[in-house]
């Protein structure tokens, strides 16, 4: 289906610069734009491409300043990236949804199914499971006893949901996700052997949570490991037992969160961050890539980076000094030499 620039602008409440009748039926990156597609410019680093792009329509922020002629029709909006997300969501929701349950799925007696559930071949669903409306479960998933899955949730191939897991509404679990495996709990005995501590709790994912491929959220020793509403977790992230992650926090790939740590809401955690156990991370904290968090962060809105992590401004000052260490070393050696010469003359 094709849409004109005018239709799109009206939907987004934007303003048009150029041909309001031009039509598009697909999306493209601004550097790879093709006729008949819509693109966007949100990051100033890509500004050069807007003057070369062959895309028919380009979304731009209201404050974008045109420096030379542009072939595409522009639609100015408050936030081009958010506007693109709105359009892509509309397209995604218009895609026909799959329904039906494969005869090759293994579904135990007593499973409660909502309306319009889709289950592919080789899915295992154990007794006591409750599945909401419009849930999609793709092939080779394992859903164990007494798990609850909320409406409109999508579970991609090869996801494992251990017993008593609770998944909210509108969640997305990507391939290879493991929810509810045992936490890493072992008690050292006097003979040096580690004795396993039974993990008797569960995992709760609230509504609108998305978890990337091959990430793991371990069950609590007692109580629940909790991922609050709106949290987005990237691929290859480890969330240990009894962790709590606050609403609308985002976590990038290869981050590891140790047991019983409590992370506030609206935090941003970059890639390869390591967070020690039993810590408190305040609301709105930003942790830079590869940071090592060994102590609690109690001030909301803090920015930390480095290992061990320090406030961002301190890290930046230290980085400047570190870059100049070879020259500083040369200066110190030169001063030592001159001092030695002066001392030899005095003596």
Instruction: Describe the strand arrangement of the main beta sheet, using strand numbers.
Output: 8-11-14-17-20-25-28-31-34-37-39-40
Count of helix runs: 5
Q: What is the oligomeric state here?
A: single chain
CATH C-level class of the largest domain: Mainly Beta
Largest sheet: 12 strands, mixed
CATH superfamily of the largest domain: Hexapeptide repeat proteins
Return the structural class.
Answer: alpha/beta
Tally of structural domains: 3
Low-confidence stretches: none
Task: Name the shape in a single word.
Answer: flat
Radius of gyration from CA coordinates: 27 Å
Range of helix content: 10-25%
What does this 3D model show about the protein?
By secondary structure, the chain is an alpha/beta fold. It folds into 3 domains: 3-94, Udp-n-acetylmuramoylalanyl-d-glutamate--2,6- Diaminopimelate Ligase, Chain: A, domain 1, CATH 3.40.1390; 100-314, UDP N-Acetylglucosamine Acyltransferase, domain 1, CATH 2.160.10.10; 320-346. It is 18% helix and 29% strand. A 12-stranded mixed beta sheet has the order 8-11-14-17-20-25-28-31-34-37-39-40. β22 (186-188) and β23 form a beta hairpin. The N and C termini lie far apart (93 Å). The mean pLDDT is 95.
